[in-house]
Design a protein that fits this description.
75% of the residues lie in helices and 6% in strands. Among the domains are: 68 residues; 48 residues, no CATH class. The protein has a four-stranded mixed β-sheet. By secondary structure, it is of the alpha+beta class. The longest helix has 151 residues.
C-alpha cells in the first residue's frame, strides 16, 4: 500500500496550466481582434453615416439653391409680365388719346367749314341785296361820268387851242421858244405861235418859261 503511487488530479498537472494559459492568451487575442474589428466597423459606419449626412446636406443645399433660383425666375417673369402689361396699357391709352384728338380735329374742321359756308352764303345774300342799289347807282354814276368827261374834253380842247395860238418867239440859232422881252431874244427875234414852235421841235425856255 505504501509503495503504490498516488494519482494526481488534473489541475495539479503542469500541462493543464500550460493549456489554460495558452487558451487565455488566445481568447484575449481574439477579444482584442474583435475590439479592433468592432472599432474599425464602427469607424467605417460613422464615416459612411457622415458621408451620407454630408450628401444629404449637399442635396438639401442644392435643392434650396434650386428653389431660390426658381423663385427668382418666377419673380422676374412676373415682373416682366407686369412691365409688358403696363406698356400695353400705355399704348392702348395713347391710341385712344390719338383717336379722340383725331375726332376733335375732324369736328373742328367740320365746324370751321360750316362757318365759312355760312359766311359765304351771308355775303352772297348781302351782295344780291346790294346789287339792285349798286346797279342804279352805277347807272347814275356812269351818266354823270360821261357828262363830266365830255365837259372835260371840251375844256381841254379849248385850252389846247388857246395855248397853241399863244404868241411866242424863237431865234435863228437856238432850239427854244421864249416870251417877249426874254434876254435870249437880243440878237434875233422871230414871232410864231406856241403850236407851230412845238411842232417844229422847239422847247420851252428855262428862264422865261413861256
Amino acid at each position: 500500500m505504501g509503495k503504490e503511487k498516488k494519482t494526481k488530479r488534473i489541475y495539479q498537472k503542469w500541462w493543464f496550466w500550460t493549456i489554460l494559459v495558452i487558451a487565455i492568451l488566445m481568447f484575449s487575442s481574439i477579444g482584442q481582434t474583435n475590439d479592433v474589428q468592432t472599432k474599425e466597423a464602427n469607424l467605417k459606419e460613422a464615416t459612411q453615416t457622415k458621408q451620407i449626412d454630408e450628401e444629404k446636406e449637399k442635396q438639401i443645399a442644392e435643392e434650396k439653391i434650386k428653389q431660390e433660383e426658381q423663385k427668382k425666375a418666377e419673380e422676374e417673369k412676373a415682373k416682366q409680365e407686369e412691365i409688358k402689361k403696363a406698356e400695353e396699357e400705355k399704348a392702348k391709352q395713347e391710341e385712344l388719346q390719338k383717336q379722340e384728338e383725331e375726332k376733335q380735329r375732324v369736328a373742328a374742321e367740320e365746324a370751321k367749314r360750316k362757318e365759312e359756308e355760312q359766311k359765304q352764303q351771308e355775303a352772297q345774300k348781302r351782295a344780291s341785296q346790294n346789287s339792285g342799289k349798286t346797279s342804279t347807282s352805277t347807272t347814275k354814276q356812269s351818266s354823270s361820268s360821261t357828262t363830266t368827261s365830255t365837259k372835260q374834253k371840251t375844256t381841254t380842247a379849248n385850252n389846247n387851242n388857246q395855248s397853241n395860238s399863244q404868241v411866242v418867239y424863237i431865234t435863228k440859232t437856238g432850239g427854244k421858244y421864249h416870251r417877249s422881252g426874254c434876254q435870249y431874244l437880243k440878237k434875233s427875234c422871230i414871232q410864231t405861235t406856241l403850236g407851230a414852235a412845238k411842232s417844229s421841235g422847239y422847247g420851252a425856255c428855262s428862264k422865261c418859261k413861256p
